[in-house]
Sequence to fold (494 residues):
Amino acid sequence: MRRVVITGAGTINALAEGVSATKTALAAGRSGIGALQFPDVERLNVRIGAQIHDFSPQDRFDLGKLALYDAFTQYALVAGAEAMAQAGLQSAPDPARWGCIIGTAGGGHGTANDAYRAVYAQGKNRVHPLTVPKLMANAAPAHLAIRHGLKGPGFAVSTACASSNHAIGLAFQMVRSGMVDGMLAGGAEAMLNFGGLKAWEGLRVMSPDGCRPFSADRNGMVQGEGAGVFVLETLDAALARGATPLAEIAGFAMNCDASDIVMPDQDSAARAITGALKDAGMAPEEVGYINAHGTGTAANDRIETAAIRHVFGGAADDVAVSSTKAMHGHCIGATGAVELVACLMALQDGVIAPTINYGGSDPDCDLDVVPNEARRAQVGAVLSNAFAFGGFNAVLALRTI
Amino acid sequence: MRSQVHDQVLSIIAHEAHRAPEEVRAEMTLEELGLDSLGLVEVIFAIEEQFDISVPFNANDTAQAQFDISSVGAIVRAVERLVSGESPAAAVA
Fold:
C-alpha cells in the first residue's frame, strides 16, 4: 500500500491565523475563549466562546465572490491557501487525480441564521438570492476545488464533532488505495451566532465560565470556530517533486456506538482507538501523545479516560494525553483539523500542547493530561481522537517522517 | 393540599415519560420513570415554557446544581421555589 504524508497545513481559529502562530499559542498555553460578540448575545445564558475576531473578509476576498462565501467557507479558503502554499502548490499537479473533503457540522449556519432572521424576525419576504449555494455544507469543498483546481472526488462529510477526522481519514484511505494521488482535507465550522448557540444552550452541556478538560471542576464544553486544511499525497510523489513531508498518516479507524444519540460509549471508543493502531501497525508503547477529544463535559472525559486505559493497559501511564479545546474551544466539525496542528507540533517540534485550566485531579480522569504547561518530548507517533454525537468515532494515527 | 404547580409538574413529567399522571409519585426518580439525560432536558424545557421561568441546570454539574432533580417531589419543590421567586436564579430569564 502507498504511504501517505501531509505536505501542507493551514488553520485559522480563535488563537491565531496560521499554523505557526497557532503552534506558538498552543505551546504558550494561551486561551482564545472570551466574551462572544454578535447580535442578541445578551439573550443567551452562555455568553463565552472561542470566536475569531478582526477577520475582515472584505479585505481578503474578491467582493464579487464574497457573496457566495459563508464564514465557514471563508475559513476553509484561508486554511486551504496556507496549506497549498506550504506544499509548494498553486493548484493540483494532476487535477483529475486530486480532490477535496471537508468536514462540517453546521455548514453555512450563519447564512441560515441571517436568512431566518430576515423572514421571521424582520418580516421580510425575500432573502439573499445566493442563500442556498452559500449555506450548503459542500460549499467549502466546492470553493476549495474551484480555487485550487481539484477535479477528482469532492464532498462534505458531516458527523458532528468527528467530521474533520472522518474527512482526513477518508482522504487518507483514498490516497493510500490509489483512488487519487492527492487530497485537500480538513474541517471548517462557523456556528457562533445567536441561533446556533441558543440551540446548544438547550442541551445543558455548555459551561458558562470556561473549558476545563479532565479537571475535577469541569462543567461543560465551550464552543469555538475556525478551520484546518491539510494537503495529503503519497510519500513518493512528495519526494519526487521536492516537497517536504511534515508527518505520515499511518492509520485510521471509524465506527459507531449504535446506542445513545449523545452519551459516549466506552467500548466503541476503545474499539476505534484499537482499530487506528492496528491499521497503522502501531503498538501502544510507540505512541507518545494522544490529542484527546476531551470536551470538558462530565461524561466524555471520564469515558475517554477509561477507553484509553482499556486499550493501552500499563502503557496508559506513559502516554501524554491533552485536550487543546480549553484553548481553541470545541470547533465542532472543524475541531479534529485544528487539533491536528497540535499533533504536528508534537511530531515535528517535540512540543506537547498542555491541557490548560486544569484545576484538580479527578480519579476518573487519571491520565497524564499535561496540566497547564506545554512539555518538551521526543514523540514518534500520535493519535487524534474524535467521538461525536450520533455515536460516531474516528481516530487518526500519525508518525514522524 | 397539592398545589397547582405540583399537578402541572407531574403532568409534564408524566407526558415525557409516556405515563398517566396518576402513575407518577413524588418519591419516584426520573430513572425509575425511564427518563434519560435527554428526557430530563425535555422536562426542564417544558417546565420553563409552562411557568415562564429559567431553570438553572447544567448536566455536567448535577451534584452542585441549584435545581434538585433527585426525585419527582424534589423537582416539584424546586419549581415552586422558582415560581415564587425565592431563588435569585429565577430572575435570569
In short: Residues 37-51 of chain B form the longest helix (15 residues). Chain B touches chain A at residues 36-38, 41, 44-45, 54, 57-61, 92 (CB under 8 Å). Residues 58 and 88 of chain B are 16 Å apart (CA to CA). The radius of gyration of chain B is 12 Å.
